[in-house]
Amino acid sequence: MEAPQHEERRTQVRGAKFRALVLDATIARIAEAGIDHVRFADVADKAGVHEASLYRRWKTVPRLLIDALLTRTQAEVPIPDTGSVRRDLKMFTTDLARFAQTPIGTALIRFTVASDNAPDIESSRREFWMQRLSAAEEIIERGKKRGEVDPGADARLVVLTLGGLIHLHVTHLGTGIPTTLPGQAVALILPGITPS
Amino acid sequence: MEAPQHEERRTQVRGAKFRALVLDATIARIAEAGIDHVRFADVADKAGVHEASLYRRWKTVPRLLIDALLTRTQAEVPIPDTGSVRRDLKMFTTDLARFAQTPIGTALIRFTVASDNAPDIESSRREFWMQRLSAAEEIIERGKKRGEVDPGADARLVVLTLGGLIHLHVTHLGTGIPTTLPGQAVALILPGITPS
DNA sequence: TCTCCATCGCAAAAAAACTTGCGATATGAG
DNA sequence: CTCATATCGCAAGTTTTTTTGCGATGGAGA
User: Fold this and answer.
1) Highest mean pLDDT (candidates B99-103, B117-121, B188-192)
2) Which of A17-31, A60-74, A134-148 has the least mean pLDDT?
């Protein structure tokens, strides 16, 4: 029932190829078992690699997870630019919702929340999200230039509000995010940032 | 360096008293070491109780945590009723922010997000939050009756939005929540639910 | 008060997680 | 192409976590 899920390999693999192999196996393991059930032993088996090598290279499971998630999650949520703040925000929220509901997206959200004392992991997570949030703030900034948005509006607050909503839905409601939610959320917030 | 932190007890304790002792020790342990560093061994020592008893009664650490957090966290965030939706929402958000920043509040938020496959835990967590959120929706409903809020406004959406914002702040920004945030957040949302 | 029994402490043992020494081999530098 | 070296597989060992059998006891009910 737990047959090795890798093809037999005669030669030893190491370096970049080794890393890629392990990272892919990690992502696959996250997707199939959930981020809380990823163990070095499983990943090693799936990657056709030895467990001890994982201990040596990544030292701890959280380190492996953050490495895999961050390097395998580039630009999953694009920043739209349609010329309309409403459309942009709705698209952004919709894309975010879709990604948040994939196994990897859920894992990323859950993992980002899980506290961990290792400072390097903590900073990696923070940098990751700050980067994403700052990118999304661009939607608001463009709206300001077009006169669609009140210049005094807090771009970060808007992004955090929408992001937090999706976040809560995924983590607490568990059930799927209604397709109408992004539109409703944007409609709720938009009047608060339109020029008076 | 790790001296037993409990008073010596000659007699054996069990039943409700045993449970209370362990739950208190668990809360104390969460507060002092963070929810990720709570182990049966520590809690048992602090409670002056045997580790194996914890394994038998709660089986896993997450079960103990959810039990302790839920039974020791009653009505930490009151639902205000000042006659003004703006004031009510602001007070609610402020109280939520304050609680969210206590060690127990943070633990509760973080833990609620952490995935766990045990179905009973999952449902406990969901029920807990749904109960809190539903209570907060009352603020909006009262506003509708007073004509302050558009009857078509989605009370749950409002609550989820504010809650999600605080949630995100605690989990991602790590740093303290600015005292101005609750007011800003309410100001952002209010125009979206006022009668047109 | 007395008895019964579920619950607890204790200790031993099983399982899981993590570490380490050593020989082998990719891989990159010269 | 050849060599030096860091990285990997392997297996044995160590530590931490979880389980279990058994005797003891507190507490509920007769």
Assistant:
1) B188-192
2) A60-74
> Is the minimum CB–CB distance between B118 and chain A shorter than 8 Å?
no
The encoded tokens of residue A86 equal 């409403």
A55 and A19 co-located in one domain: yes
Distance set, CA A34 to CA A37, A39, A183 (Å): 6, 11, 30
What is the mean predicted confidence (pLDDT) over B94-107?
Answer: 92
Q: For residue A2, is it within any domain?
A: no
CA of B174: which chain A residue's CA is closest?
A126
Residue A186 belongs to some domain of the structure: yes
Neighbour tally for B87: CB within 10 Å: 14
Give the CATH number, domain containing residue B39: 1.10.10.60
In chain A, residues with a C-beta closer than 8 Å to the C-beta of B161 are 161, 164-165, 185, 188-189
Euclidean distance between CA atoms B132 and B57, whole angstroms:
28
Whether chain A has a CB inside 8 Å of the CB on B184: the answer is yes
B116 pLDDT exceeds 80?
no
Domain of residue A109: give its range.
Answer: 85-192
Has residue B158 got a pLDDT over 60? yes
pLDDT given at position A132: 86
CA distance B84 to chain A (A): 18
Best to test chain A binding among B121, B134, B165, B170 (most A CBs inside 10 Å) = B165
pLDDT at A174 over 50: yes
> Shortest Cα distance from A174 to chain B (angstroms)?
8
